[in-house]
Amino acid sequence: MKANRLVFENAIDINPRSGIIKFNGNRMILKSAEALGFFRRDIIQTLNMERAKGFLLRYGWACGYSAGGSIEKMYNWKELKELIRAGAAIHTLEGVVSVQIDVLEITNDKFEMEGKWFHSYEAEEHVRHFGFSDESVCWTLIGYVAGFLAKTYPKEIVVFEEKCRGKCDDYCKFVVRTKEHATEEQLEILRYFQDTSLADELDNTFNELKSLNNSIVHSDTIHKQMTHAMLEGYTLNQLLYLLSDALQCSVTVERRYLMKPIGYYFIHEDDERLYIEASRKKKEFRHEYDIMTMKKQLGTLVILSHKALTREQEMIIERAVTVFSIYLYTQIQIAQSQWKKKSDFLDEVMSQQSPSEELIKKARNIFYFDPSKNNRVIVITMEQEEPEIVHSFLATEYLNVECFIKNQEVLLILEDCKKDVQYMSNFLSGLSKRVMERFKQATFQIGVGKNAEKLEEIGNSYNDAKLICQFLRYAAPQQTQAAIYENFQHIMLFLKTTNPRELLQFYKEVLGQLLEYDEQNHATLVHTLEVFLNHSGNVNQTAKALNLSIPGFRYRMEKIESLLQEDMRIGDGRFRCHLALKIYYAIKTLENEK
């Protein structure tokens, strides 16, 4: 593979139905350069220029490392140089910057690369918000190159920017050297890639703020403690404990769509009761602060206090909100990454790309359910509500059930589920009730697939559940409906090969006049037809089952044939009616369970 053969059309895969964009096999999200510029501005204003530099360098490194792994696996590279050039080509195709490599020399003990960057979005956005800088500002670009080479080249390298449009140079010039061949000044950039660099910068900031008043010093100390705790992997409740201890108030973090907080720490015994009452009545007991990132609200920090908050408390809260915004944003990114792994695994199962033992091993590394047991897939589609919101609600309601998002659908995998239909119906009824009570303005379709007795069948369970959801959407578009595989197993083959709208139209065309007659005359001709078909068209057996005389039954059948305009003496007529009845009773089952 040659790097110059990489073209955008071959690298990009856009699925307009699912809303998924893949670039070189990795899921991508299109964001405007302007939006990223505002995010960069907020990061710098929040963390200061020096700390933001380290944050953005590490962010770029993660992007480059991921891209290096993806492209290295995707193509057969005969030369390392072509793989390196491909990284530059990918950076250009992504619209980040135009890359021109001028020097590329690789030996056993030395790596040297020089090149130019043109139209760097990062330099343009930095200048737009902060003006020209005294130093180079293409930090994510530097990090990207460092991360890409960390994945593809075995020795430690140093990447730095000699010229930059962000400091009013004509173009950006980047240089890459092996660590052994870099100067002390060039090696300085390596400290930003260390996990402890942000903590060191916070220590320096704290020392610089010693001259400020006690309130500011105290708020900075709390901010430092919470940031350290976040970096060390503290949970949300542990972070809230630190904040609660500093404020001497009970605190919670909410999301507007959940019925309970996602994190809390109540300092007094009565505070939980008061919090619930205040949530209902919106009393002054609650002090609310939006947790935002990139103009999107991730949650709300709620401080519980009967007294007005002091200036020092306000300062502490303001800085704490920053920590929670980074924490929640990181958790969302981690969750989305996990969803993608699970979604890709289901695709792999359905494509049968791996042997059974390998699939089971991989499943145990990705999922929480036991892949060796019986499992069912539940698919939930929705309108007038975001899948992420529904997922967050269900993840808190069903803590022991696997729950993730695939193609804008919420999926649950019910582990070691019983084959008993009544058990599944009861579970489905409870699930439907919960989402309907919580999301009153939304409509849902909930389908439960066939029981998967082994892992290879879980893809079939997913497909069945998805087909059921599609059918429900056509059958009752304005209503929340739920059904299990057993309700549809007689017509599942037709669902797999026919548009659900056509199936519904078919049963109405075949049975429409008969159903209308029964409703207007309080008759039971539909039941008579069902018994007749179940007895394979045997007149004597059907009449006996219905407790009718032979002439009485023949009169009914003549009326049925007249309304249906079908000949029940031939197989084709009986088949059409039998299929229409199966579809009709599947829909009646939904109405009865509602």
UniProtKB/TrEMBL annotation:
Which stretches make up the 4-vinyl reductase 4VR domain?
Answer: 116-178
Q: Which residues cross the membrane?
A: none
Which domain of life does the protein's organism represent?
Answer: Bacteria
Which Pfam families does the entry link to?
GGDEF_2 (PF17853), HTH_30 (PF13556), V4R (PF02830), XylR_N (PF06505)
Q: Which family is this sequence assigned to?
A: Belongs to the CdaR family.
Protein name per the record = 4-vinyl reductase 4VR domain-containing protein
Organism lineage? Bacteria, Bacillati, Bacillota, Bacilli, Bacillales
